[in-house]
């Protein structure tokens, strides 16, 4: 803190008076946003916790204590869904980061047409997710879709293949769509970070005879590491919560093959009108994401310290 | 620059990789476009044929007749996203300024509270959120789709904008302050004009978020057909007997076109703005 006013005693008195009004001013600036979030997010969250201890449905509600949690945790199905959700998150986020990094590197290459290519990756990000999913729904269609049709013509498939009709293929198909939705944003953030890297570093390495791969590994990656790590955290939370993509493609099926925690919560609460049981699942999501985020922020802190970012 | 020169082989490799990457990104759009041109008879004909000679733009004129409200849906999507962006910015700008510049009790803790909102999505809180909307009498209005959108975008906005405001030299503000300008005047007349590039980036990101995710709130909190945004309105092409797939695809592509074109050209400023915000000095 290099506050020049705090060097002399009268100035210090003035600074402390300023400090008091500063706190009031700051809170006045924050209050509207905090209030808004309080009503629209915090209150529903408190309500969710309360509902999770009731048997609320369309008819009414009464207190049932921990019954919803006991029911949820007693079946093997819940843990299967938790496992699937983490598998979904890790695989999808990993792919988004790898594809995003490759994409950003390609779009950062000094070649003609670069400006046009950068424009062309925008569409999946800037259109409504639900609309992108309609395109994928058709691509995955066995009878009329391009993927099945093309594979048959190329002799890869003997007959129509419904990508969304089998547990495994539906799961990976949903992953591909999720990666498709998430990749443009990740690519653009990485691209922006790459352009922020000081060119002198590359030139110095180049003069020393370092090749492209070496420069990428030893300069680009470490320099943009803080952005990679924070994108990984944000993507992880969004992917964990990814709802529309799965819901529109498969509604969580076939036979639960693509049911993640968020889909399970939605179907329990909205589909089956078991508000209380749905709320218990929502609380489980919040607890898991909370623990996950705390762990992650510790890692982020370490990474930032390691790479000298304050 | 010499360092950036590629050999011919490297160039071919880069272009091939970019072609593969863009194929992945654009494939669903190509498929939607192909479907929009196909007459229904071609779509369901076997064996599979990618292209037919009877392809036409017929669906692009039929869709307005089949779903008369289509123009309204396209407009609603843009209107809702615009309102969400404007209102979010009104909340975000003062808060981001406070976190960027001022020192106050519970600063880190309250910022943590904001950022933790990022962990939730509307889908988890739907039941209580529905009750809140009902209590506030907002169900079946535009506000039912605008208000939750704003709440879930405020934290990202604060987080992004704070980064930009921190970069503005403090001396300028202090000079205005010493000259007797009030805090609010300084914020309005000194800080905001300097922060314009950052405001554009943050506003653009919020708009994209608001435009991309209007399906869930629309189908849950709004039953009025005239108010539905495009993703929900497309359900109108699903009839009792048949789904007019070609018209649905034509409508989807036409509907997103205006916004998409704007963002294709904003991309350059977006990357430049993100770069400016990402570089730590």
Please write the CATH class name of the largest domain in chain B: Mainly Alpha
Which residues of chain A sit in consecutive blocks of at least 5 with pLDDT less than 50? 1-17
β-strand percent of chain B reads under 5%
Number of helices of chain B: 13
CATH topology of the largest domain in chain A: MetI-like fold
The value of Rg of chain B in angstroms is 24 Å
Shape of chain A: globular
Helix % of chain B is over 70%
CATH architecture of the largest domain in chain B: Orthogonal Bundle
CATH superfamily of the largest domain in chain A: MetI-like
Query: What class do helices, strands and sheet pairing of chain A give?
Result: mainly alpha
The CATH topology name of the largest domain in chain B reads MetI-like fold
Topology as H/E string of chain A?
A: HHHHHHHHHHHHH
- Mean pLDDT score of chain A: 86
Shape of chain B: globular
Distance between the termini of chain A: 14 Å
Helix-strand sequence of chain B:
HHHHHHHHHHHHH
Determine the CATH superfamily of the largest domain in chain B. MetI-like
Largest interface (CB within 8 Å) is between: A-B, 100 and 105 residues
Q: How much is the average pLDDT of chain B?
A: 87
């Amino acid at each position: 803190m290099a506050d020049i006013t705090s060097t002399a005693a009268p100035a210090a008195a003035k600074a402390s008076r300023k400090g008091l009004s500063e706190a009031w001013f700051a809170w006045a600036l924050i209050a509207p946003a905090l209030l808004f979030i309080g009503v629209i997010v915090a209150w529903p969250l408190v309500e969710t916790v309360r509902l999770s201890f009731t048997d609320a449905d369309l008819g009414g509600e009464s207190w049932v204590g921990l019954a919803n949690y006991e029911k949820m945790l007693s079946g093997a199905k819940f843990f299967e869904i938790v496992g699937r959700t983490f598998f979904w998150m890790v695989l999808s986020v990993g792919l988004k980061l790898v594809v995003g990094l490759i994409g950003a590197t390609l779009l950062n290459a000094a070649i003609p047409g670069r400006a046009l290519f950068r424009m062309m990756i925008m569409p999946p990000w800037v259109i409504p997710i639900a609309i992108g999913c309609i395109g994928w729904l058709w691509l995955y269609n066995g009878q009329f879709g391009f993927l099945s049709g093309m594979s048959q013509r190329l002799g890869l498939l003997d007959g129509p293949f419904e990508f969304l009709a089998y547990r495994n293929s539906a799961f990976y198909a949903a992953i591909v769509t999720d990666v498709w939705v998430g990749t443009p944003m990740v690519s653009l953030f990485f691209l922006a970070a790459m352009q922020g890297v000081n060119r002198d570093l590359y030139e110095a390495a180049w003069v020393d005879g370092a090749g492209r791969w070496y420069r990428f590994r030893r300069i680009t990656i470490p320099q943009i590491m803080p952005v990679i790590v924070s994108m990984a955290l944000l993507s992880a939370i969004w992917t964990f919560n990814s709802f529309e993509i799965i819901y529109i493609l498969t509604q969580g099926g076939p036979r639960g093959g693509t049911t993640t925690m968020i889909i399970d919560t939605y179907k329990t609460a909205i589909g089956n009108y078991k508000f209380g049981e749905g709320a218990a699942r929502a609380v489980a999501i919040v607890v898991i994401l909370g623990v996950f985020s705390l762990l992650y922020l510790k890692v982020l802190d370490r990474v930032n310290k390691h790479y000298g970012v304050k | 620059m010499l360092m950036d020169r590629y050999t011919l082989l490297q160039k071919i490799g880069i272009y091939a990789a970019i072609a593969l990457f863009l194929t992945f990104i654009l494939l669903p759009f190509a498929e939607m476009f192909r479907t929009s041109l196909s007459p229904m008879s071609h779509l369901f004909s076997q064996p599979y044929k990618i292209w037919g000679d009877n392809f036409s733009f017929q669906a692009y004129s039929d869709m307005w007749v089949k779903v008369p409200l289509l123009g309204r849906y396209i407009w609603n999507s843009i209107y809702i996203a615009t309102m969400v962006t404007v209102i979010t910015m009104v909340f975000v700008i003062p808060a981001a300024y406070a976190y960027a510049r001022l020192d106050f009790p519970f600063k880190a803790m309250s910022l943590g509270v904001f950022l933790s909102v990022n962990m939730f999505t509307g889908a988890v809180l739907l039941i209580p959120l529905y009750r809140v909307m009902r209590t506030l009498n907002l169900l079946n209005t535009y506000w039912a789709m605008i208000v939750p959108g704003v709440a879930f975008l405020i934290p990202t906005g604060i987080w992004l904008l704070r980064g930009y405001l921190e970069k503005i030299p403090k001396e300028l503000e202090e000079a205005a302050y010493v000259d007797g300008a009030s805090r609010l005047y300084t914020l309005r007349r000194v800080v905001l004009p300097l922060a314009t590039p950052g405001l554009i980036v943050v506003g653009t990101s919020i708009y994209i978020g608001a435009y991309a995710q209007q399906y869930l709130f629309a189908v849950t909190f709004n039953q009025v057909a005239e108010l539905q945004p495009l993703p929900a309105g497309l359900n109108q092409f699903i009839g009792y007997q048949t789904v007019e797939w070609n018209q649905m695809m034509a409508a989807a592509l036409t509907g997103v076109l205006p916004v998409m074109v704007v963002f294709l050209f904003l991309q350059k400023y977006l990357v430049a703005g993100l770069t400016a915000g990402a570089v730590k000095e």
